[in-house]
Specification:
This protein is of the alpha+beta class. The protein is 35% helix and 24% strand. It is rod-shaped.
Amino acid sequence: MAIDLHKGISLEIEGELGKFQTLPIESLIKIAESLQELILSIAKYDLPANEAIDLNNFKLELTDFQKGSAIPSFVLTQRVQPVITSDYQNQREEVTKRLNTIFEISDKGNYADLKVLYPEHFKRNEIVEKLYGFTSSFKNSPVSIYEKGNINEESAKYRPKKFKASTKKSLIVKIEEVTEEQQEEKAFARIKVTKKGGKTRKRIEEVISTAQHSLSYSPEIINVNKKQYILNFPLRCLFEKEEDYYVINNEQLDIIGTGETQDDAEKNFNEEFDYLYNRLNSLNDNQLNKRLLRIKNVLNSFVKEVF
């Protein structure tokens, strides 16, 4: 007859760990916690995924420590949390059945059978870790697992064999996490700025992709060297930030202005505009190549007046 977690199980610990018929507190805690973790892992992976499960219903409580021996006994908690859509009693029975199957494997020492019992790597990895932790909690001391209240040499249900670290390693599968590469995209935003009572609030109203759109610098008047260029229409230029500096670029006129601040970039662009205008207009058309002549004509078409 198999053990029944509802009735309770007893662990008879012999050898070095139990030779004084007592258990060190740290050993008792380690044994109890490792058994608890094994049972919780079984509940997590062996109960139907479509059932509501409260893992608190699978916690253990120390119910006895037999006088004159190193035999702690454990039973499933009576502090039950009812699950409306599931029968916790049936769930406990299923977990008990699977625990017996695992203890049978441990009793025979055929730990490789865990591959058949748990073909899914992520399940097997955790069960192997928890079973190894339980069998290792006794160190090298022999242990016999009994049904609570029925402790004698003939009634031992299981005697776990040593679970070697090399065997454990052969059963564990390293699961590579597939991480998606982080993709970064730059975008423009239309921001609504609200000022009230000395406070400023900013709210993004629209995000605009940079794939087909760009920011522009579009002056209608260019101020430079105490002069003003009044333009016939706005001079639309590409405006962007590259690393730690700002760039204003007009491809038609082949003018680029740069600066550490927006004002510096604008000042540099205006100076380049002024230089190009004066230089090209100081030369006759026949002194210019086709590209410069085209730029001169475009430049003059923009300028309405100079003051």
